[in-house]
Write a structure and sequence with these properties.
This protein is mainly β. It is globular and about 40 Å long. It is built from no helices and 11 strands. Strands 2, 4, 5, 6, 9, 10 and 11 form a 7-stranded mixed beta sheet that branches. Strands 1-3-8-7 form a 4-stranded antiparallel beta sheet, with no helix packed on it. The chain is 0% helix and 53% strand.
Length: 113
Amino acid sequence: QVQLVESGGGSVQAGGSLKLSCTASRYTFTNCDMDWFRQGPGKGREWVSSISSGGIVITGYVDSVKGRFSISRDNAKDTMYLQMNSLKTEDTAVYYCTGCDYWGQGTEVTDSS
């Protein structure tokens, strides 16, 4: 079964950093454009950022994370990343990766402040 698995979430104080990973199994996502989404408590799912199959950031970032988050990928490892710095309370959410119509189950990021 094709899977995307997110990892790296956790509880972190405001101002801290986390690096999320999204790893593919049983399928190569090398040729897929990929995205990060998030869903905060009581909120709808929100697009965060996109990256092309060649590693180009396609459409930037949602305004609320610009200058703080960075998307990247390592196609040799079939893995995508989201480096999150200067985290804020409002970044609390379940973060999902998606590519080629597949979605992961999400990894949770919470504010421990």
